[in-house]
Write a structure and sequence with these properties.
By secondary structure, the chain is of the alpha/beta class. It has 8 helices and 6 strands. Helix 1 packs across helix 2, helix 2 runs parallel beside helix 3 and helix 3 packs parallel to helix 5. The structure holds farnesyl diphosphate. Farnesyl diphosphate binds next to helix 1, helix 2, strand 2 and helix 3.
Amino acid sequence: MEEKRSQAPARELLPRHIGIIMDGNGRWAKARGLPREMGHQAGSKVVGEIIRHCKKIGVPYITIYAFSTENWKRPAKEVDALLDLLRHYLSNMEEYQKENARLRVLGHLEPLPRDLRESIRRAEAESAGNTAITVNIALNYGGRGEIIQGVRRLLEEGVSPEEVTEELLSQRLYTAGMPDPDLIIRPSGEYRLSNFLLWQSAYSELLFMNVLWPDFTPEHLNYALHQYARRSRRFGGI
Ligand code: FPP
């Protein structure tokens, strides 16, 4: 079956928060005899189009997995290319202002190069008042690490074991104050979460698609949204 639809479902059936694991850039490049970096470049072009589509149809939060804490294991050339793409992306804040989009970066930022950290700080501050959509970029992000840093914060604050609640820990995660993702999409035919939003995905609907991320279009997103709209979410009830 063709994993595409020309229209999104009605607004009341849409998720409030979509997470996307942008996978398949390397395979896309390899299939064309190109270096992997070209796959990431093609993938980064898709990001803007998908965000604009989310905004247009009325999805208020999107989180995209750009760089995991495990991605440092890749060759230095590829890591540098990914960080350069992010630099380039963050330097284009006029687009965010024009779209009234708020940008947040989720992840362990200290190990990142200083200029990139500074660009992140500036981009988050400049877009803080924007209200049409919140775009989270998961960067040097790992779900287990995020939970660990949340637990450390609770301990530093002197919270006692019996005071610890799900709510208190949620408030110390990078996504504090945001709704959990209703839908997580992983393109490229891989069937795993790869340390993405582990805590927040407790009740997320998961959708795995066969398209590679650089080929992902708004019509693929519409298909995913129709699949989501048909699911019956019970959150452990009947
Ligand atoms: C996985 O594909 C993708 C990544 C590790 C990086 C995703 C990053 C981008 C699309 C660009 C930067 C992001 C922004 C926001 C500008 P893969 O390399 O694992 O693909 P493969 O499984 O086919 O090898």
